[in-house]
Amino acid sequence: MKKTLLILFFLITSLQAEAQSYLGYFHDNYAGVQSVLFNPASIADSRFKTDINLFSISGSVQNDLYGVKLFDVYKDGYDFDTQSKMSPKNANNGLVNFDIMGPSFMFNIAPKHTLAVFTRARSIANVNKLNGFLVDQVKDGLDQSSNFNYNLGSPNAAANAWGEVGISYAAVLYQNNQHFLKGGLTAKYLQGGANADVKGNNVSVAYLENKANPKAGSLISTGEISVGGSQDWENNEDYDFDAASRGFGFDFGLVYEWRPDYEKYDVRNAKPADNNFRDLNKYKLRFGLSVTDIGSINYKNSKIDTYNVNGVVTQQMIDDADDLYEFLNDHYTKVSSSKGVKTNLPTAIHADVDWNMYNKFYLNLNGDISMVSENKLNSYGIADRVTLTPRYESRWFSFYVPVTYMEYSGMQAGAGLRAGVFFIGSGSILSNLASKDSKGADFHLGMKIPVYEKQFKDTDGDGVIDKQDACRKVAGPVENNGCPWPDTDKDGVFDKDDACPDTAGPKENKGCPWKDSDGDSLLDNVDACPAVAGPVENKGCPWPDTDGDGILDKDDACPNEAGLAENKGCPSLDADKDGVLDKDDDCPLVYGPADNKGCPKVTKETLAQLKMEAKSIFFTTGKATLSDAKMGETSGRLDAIKEILKNYPNAKFAINGHTDNVGNAKVNQKLSEQRAKVVMDLLIEKGVNPANLTSKGYGASKPVKSNKTASGRAENRRTEIVYLGNL
User: Fold this and answer.
1) In this predicted structure, what is the pLDDT of residue 319?
2) Which of 50, 369, 508, 562 has the fewest Cβ atoms nearer than 10 Å?
3) Is 60 strand, coil or helix?
């Protein structure tokens, strides 16, 4: 008992809880149900349909007192006390944790909602502020030690083993463009297993050796020591399970993801084969924050005894004691006792940043901070640490290399991998292989059944996934189960839309050929009146006779007023009110007597006026051009003649030209003809109907006066307008 008792008494086996398990693994997007242990929000919008953990375990040992070449420890003949490298100081610490995860699972209950249920067994022990120099002194027993004197201060130790059954709920809380936030909560039922604690208060220890009789060496101590446990270790060496030792715990967490390429994952643009992009990691940066292990276990039957350890004991007394309680009760005064202890969980804050560097390569920075006081009785918490973990991850394989600075054991590096249904790793394996002074070791391994979200297969790319596609190799619409619509008559109209599926026809007629319903030689598609026969010229419609006069509108000059065929469908009129109907009136717009077919008669007065006007038309001597000197008067005369002639639309007039006998007769003849035509053309130019006029030249053949005198010859050079009769 000599060495064992002293080691227990002075808390030589320094242990501290390390509640963080699965180092380097749990940040993997495919960690599944294990990730819920560290941030319950992580399972929302996960890459899993479901993830079933069959069995997994994680354990770690860390300290800042003993350094070893880890793989030599397992060799035959290895002496831990002599071959390890010690680094004593006034307050040494160490780390031990075992975490066993039993059957557990997670599954998506809706696109934005996820549940997880897990079972877990945990074992933690914790010692703080142990004087490592004392450990070095007594590691071989007091009977071989020299004198020493140490102030131990207030060392504190606690150990706890318990089981958990937890249920986690996580959901997407906010999603807007590149911003994505999810949250989660875990509630845990805690079943206590075993609990023990030891705490010193201002303890000091001195040893005076007796060289003549080592058994008589004296151990002098001062201060108080409290010892407690859920079992009656003093009177019962067997373990008694206490089902009444139970409690409740909680975890909660948030995860924010920055998704700069959010438009690529807009479910409104997702095809059925994309499965709403559930299989993809969409973030560039991910930030996680969680608080775990809020709660406690109430050990109602636990007992705490406090001893005043002021006194002196000898080596012989130590050797004679069978257990710690017997030794304390026999040699020290029990100050107080109490029953019932509520022990806290190792509450901690966890924060991490995950960067998707490129494609499937990630870099994670994780920090853990204990929220438990090291000085509180029966308390234990995690060691603060920072871990940087580069990793490669895919659906069925991941590889990660965590590099950690631990509060007590310093820097360590490890590696791990996930392959299919197995995962295994260590946060310290690389350090353990390389270092001769390792102060920590950890491991994790497990087996699970992952069922991943994945893209659906669409072989023909028609938007109908293969498992729903009746024609997987030929594209077709969703409405026809992914098969193309048939077109029996090859007219470009699918049978489902074709009213005549066996006879080719245009799409406009629902796949049927056009008919000629009225038999007018125009097909119904171009027949404006498909039910009534009509000429092609009128688009297959019969010509209308609006006024019902028997003359079709197309030939009716008065389609809205009944009339006579001979009057182009218009009724008979007397426009000039001369009593002669227009149909019989040769001059319907000019008043005239019936005996002249409604036209005015050419009177002597009219002829006389025409003669007078015509006499005043002057030509250049010897030419058929009007005289410039008399141009104004001549133009006025022509206008007057025009107005007279217009009053006789059915009369025929002749424009006759005459000359004197001076000069060549042929020249005079031609000149008279030209002058008559010039006058006729000028009258036509002014608006006289050409049908009412003729022109003729007579030369000197019809003189009206004697050519022997100058005045006679002047009278003979003339232009006359002669009435020839009606047209």
Assistant:
1) 74
2) 508
3) strand
| pLDDT tens, position by position, 65-124 | 888 887 777 777 777 777 778 888 888 877 788 999 999 999 998 889 999 999 999 988
Q: Would you say residue 25 has pLDDT above 80?
A: yes
Token code pair at residue 669: 């003849």
Q: Which two tokens stand for residue 169?
A: 């709920």
Residue partners of 235: CB distance under 8 A and separation at least 6: none
Cα separation, 94 vs 130, in Å, equals 10
Q: Under 8 Å CB-to-CB from 377, ≥6 apart: which residues? A: 156, 158, 197, 199, 226, 228, 304
Q: Per mean pLDDT, which of 204-208, 324-328, 395-399, 524-528 is the most reliable?
A: 395-399
Return the bridge partners of 288, or none: 255, 352
Sort 463 into a burial class: Cβ within 10 Å, 0-12 / 13-18 / 19+.
Answer: middle
CA distance 379 to 85: 29
d(CA 198, CA 155): 8
Q: How confident is the model at residue 7 (pLDDT cuts 50, 70, 90)?
A: very low
The most confident of the ranges 287-291, 325-329, 343-347, 686-690 is: 287-291
Cβ-in-10-Å burial (0-12, 13-18, 19+) of 524 comes to middle
Distance CA 57, CA 162 (A): 15
Rg (CA), the chain: 63
Residue 395, burial from CB neighbour count under 10 angstroms (0-12, 13-18, 19+): middle
Whole-number Å distance between alpha carbons of 502 and 512: 9
In one-letter notation, the amino acid at residue 700 is A
User: What element of type H or E holds 165?
Assistant: strand 156-176
Distance (Å, whole) CA 564 – CA 570:
6
Rounded distance, CA 292 to CA 285, Å? 23
Task: Please list the alpha-helical segments (H only) found in 499-567.
Answer: none
Length of the chain: 727
What's the 3-state SS for 187-238? EEEEEEEEEEEEEEEEEEEEEECCCCCHHHCEEEEEEEEEEEECCCCCCCCC
Q: What angle do CA 551, 557, 562 make, to 5 degrees?
A: 55
The pair phi, psi for residue 454, each rounded to 5°, is -155, 160
| The overall pTM is greater than 0.70 | no
Q: Hey, what are 385's tokens?
A: 């640490």
Q: Which residue has the higher pLDDT, 578 or 643?
A: 643
Distance of alpha carbon 618 from alpha carbon 69, whole angstroms: 147
CB neighbour list of residue 161: distance below 8 Å, 6 or more residues apart: 121, 122, 123, 124, 193, 194, 195
DSSP state for residue 110 in the 8-state scheme:
E
Give the number of other CB atoms < 10 A from CB of residue 706: 12
**pLDDT: which is higher, 115 or 311:** 115
In degrees rounded to 5, what are phi and psi of residue 172? -80, 120
